[in-house]
Write a structure and sequence with these properties.
single chain, 226 residues, alpha/beta, Glycerol-3-phosphate (1)-acyltransferase, 6-stranded mixed β-sheet, 10 strands
Length: 226
């Protein structure tokens, strides 16, 4: 690990301990190397860094909006963490190839399938790119959620730390291993992947997927190595 990355991680760890309370033990129990596709909800700019920092020394990297490379500080953070820039409106071939390369190199690739932050903490509709990457790469998928960021401002005013909840779900894989995945099948697969993420959330935070529970037919539970 580079010195710059160690400094960055230590700084973020300190900030998290100052402003939040949480149990990161489930993150530390995740396997240390991939290939693994980690999917998470996205409610705050700090949820991605939390996963990255507290999963160390895992070989994890994440996709992040390309705008973060426009400011010197966030660009430094993204480069330090080897993050993959993504255009949220148009996922390019270059971005896709970077994702597949990371997985081939046995990395843990972290993705927020919603594509952008949820303002009220409720789960938004997932972008289709996640289903494409998951099917094309044929790697295990692990859902992870964090809750509690929306209370930060109120708690800071009261000089209180904000409690966060971190949940790691059951790992799963796609049943279909080969063949063409048309638009309809990709959409159905995307919904099932998102429903697995939604299942970790309380009903009032499932948002777009509230009341859409279904029996999984396109994916199956698996066990990951420790």
């Amino acid at each position: 690990m580079k010195i710059s990355e160690r400094i960055m991680n230590a700084t973020f760890k300190l900030l998290y301990r100052v402003f939040y309370t949480f149990d990161a033990s489930e993150l530390r129990n995740i396997q240390k190397k991939g290939p693994l596709l980690l999917i998470s909800n996205h409610t705050n700019v700090f949820d991605g860094p939390l996963l990255y920092v507290f999963m160390q020394p895992s070989s994890v990297l994440a996709m992040a909006k390309k705008e973060l490379w426009n400011h010197w500080f966030t660009a430094m953070v993204m480069k330090s963490w080897s993050s993959i820039p993504v255009d949220r409106e148009n996922m390019t071939r270059e971005t896709m190839e970077a994702c597949f390369t990371a997985l081939k190199e046995e990395k843990i690739l972290a993705i927020a399938p919603e594509g952008t932050r949820s303002k009220d903490g409720s789960l938004q509709e997932g972008k289709a790119g996640v289903a494409f990457i998951a099917y094309k790469a044929q790697v295990p998928i692990l859902p992870v959620i964090t809750l509690g960021y929306n209370n930060l401002k109120e708690n800071v005013k009261k000089f209180r730390r904000t409690p966060l909840v971190i949940k790691v779900g059951t790992p799963f894989e796609i049943i279909q291993k080969s063949g063409r995945l048309d638009a309809a099948a990709r959409s159905e697969l995307n919904d099932e992947i998102m429903l697995r993420l939604a299942a970790l959330l309380p009903e009032d935070k499932r948002g777009f997927y509230s009341g859409k529970e279904k029996e999984y037919s396109l994916t199956k539970d698996i066990e990951l190595p420790k």
